[in-house]
Write a structure and sequence with these properties.
Blueprint (H helix, E strand, L loop, with lengths): L16 E4 L5 H11 L3 E6 L13 E2 L2 E2 H6 L3 E5 L5 H12 L3 E4 L5 H4 L4 H7 L4 E6 L14 H7 L20 H22 L6 E5 H6 L5 H8 L16 E5 L5 E5 L3 H10 L3 H4 L7 H5 L2 H12 L4 H11 L3 E2 L4 H6 L1 H5 L3 E5 L5 E5 L23 H7 L4 H9 L4
Parallel strand pairs: 1-2, 1-6, 2-5, 6-7, 7-8
Antiparallel strand pairs: 3-4, 9-10, 10-11, 12-13
Helix pairs in contact: 1-7
Length: 403
């Protein structure tokens, strides 16, 4: 891809102002994505401790390494939303913003006098992204909900793992991230609507619905055939062949030869012309009925070869295949590097750090890593001054621990 404009001060969202009121993952990942593409994102944190994510998982110099990814390109403002004067300042900030992001339990903003009616009254074109476990309506709306619960209710957990073991979770907060990305989509759709001369609106994102949205034919299969999809380990039920296969050196390869033409090329590569020409296996539905037979043939071939030999043969046959990457593999991979997906930055603690690059890649207005994740309250005075707060007022707010 040719990048024709790599100016770090540009981006498709340059001029868009975002107020991020959320904590931890779902709201802040939404803010991070908008910030990567040029939006000015003002992150509000409680005075004293800040966002709890600052202390999650592995730390360096007293700050979470995750923080350096999640909060890059943002400005940090400390503000106590439990106090009336802090709430008033938040409303003043929202008055000048295009988008407000929050991921508190439904009703929290209203309790702080920061609900939709209060914010939109002063800024009719405002877009409010609300991310919660169960959404802003319905009988479960007031329940606390984290990604783990959303993944379970959304159908992902039940089908993840091996059939003879309890359901497992992916070692990532997938539900939070899916909700965040749905929030970004909603914000951009609403922004387009506003830019055509219309009013702002609320984007109501539920974690469980964001997970449920990617479950493909899970519900129709149950409705039409009363089939409950079960855990299947490394296979992909109903789509064949697509599995993890053992190699001679104790490693594994993933091979996905599930398209009709791919299957024929795969069978030729492993010397199984009998399967290649079998009319019962010419289409996916026929292959799905004989998954065990096909997987056995592929495993018999891969188990006699080293992983690299298998991968090279699959590349020659133009069959999708790959190995399972660890973090170390990612950091050393030349394709990641060539695509700009491994970025070397100086983090907010002054030390070098490798962080993920930006997705998606835009040819004319790409995203950029402009500023490191901020120190707690680093931009409080600058941002408050921009909405008319005097030095004396800022000093008083600090003394009263409102900021």
């Amino acid at each position: 891809m040719t990048v024709t404009n790599s100016d770090p001060d540009s981006g498709p969202l340059k001029g868009i102002k975002v107020l991020e009121l959320g904590t931890l993952i779902a709201g802040p990942f939404c803010g991070k994505t908008l910030a990567d593409f040029g939006a000015e994102v003002i992150k509000v944190e409680p005075p004293g401790d800040g966002d709890p994510l600052r202390r999650w998982r592995r730390m360096r110099n007293g700050v979470s390494l995750w923080w350096h990814v999640q909060s890059r390109n943002k400005k940090s403002v400390t503000l106590d939303l439990r106090q009336a004067e802090g709430q008033a300042i938040a409303r003043r900030l929202a008055r000048d913003c295009h988008i407000v992001i929050e991921n508190f339990r439904p009703g929290a903003l209203e309790k702080w006098n920061l609900g939709w009616e209060a914010l939109s009254r002063e800024n009719p074109k405002l877009i409010l992204v609300r991310i919660s476990g169960y959404g802003q309506t319905g009988p479960y709306r007031e329940r606390p909900g984290f990604a783990a619960i959303g993944e379970a209710m959304g159908g992902m957990r039940y089908i993840t793992g091996f059939p003879d073991r309890p359901p497992v979770r992916p070692n990532l907060s997938v539900g939070d991230t899916l909700a965040s990305l749905h929030g970004v989509i909603g914000a951009l759709l609403a922004l387009h609507h506003v830019q055509k001369g219309n009013k702002g609106q609320v984007i109501d994102v539920a974690l469980y619905e964001s997970v449920f949205n990617i479950t493909e034919s899970l519900l129709p299969e149950y409705d039409a055939h009363r089939v409950v999809r079960e855990r299947s380990g490394s296979t992909l039920p109903g789509i064949a062949p697509s599995n993890l296969y053992p190699c001679r050196d104790g490693s594994y390869v993933l091979i996905a030869g599930n398209a009709d033409a791919l299957f024929k090329r795969l069978m030729s590569a492993i010397g199984r012309d009998d399967l290649r020409e079998d009319p019962a296996l010419a289409r996916n539905d026929g292959r799905a009925a004989q998954m065990a037979r096909i997987d056995e043939a592929i495993s018999a071939w891969t188990s006699k070869r080293a992983q690299q030999d298998v991968l090279e043969e699959m590349e020659r046959a133009q069959v999708p295949a790959g190995r399972i990457y660890t973090a170390a593999d990612i950091a050393a991979d030349p394709h990641y590097a060539a695509r700009g997906m491994i970025q070397d930055v100086v983090a907010g603690d002054g030390e070098a750090l490798k962080v993920p690059g930006i997705v998606p890649k835009l040819s004319l207005t790409p995203g950029a890593l402009r500023t490191p994740a901020p120190k707690l309250g680093e931009h409080t005075e600058q941002v408050l001054a921009s909405i008319g707060c005097s030095r004396d007022e800022i000093s008083r707010l600090r003394e009263q621990k409102i900021i």
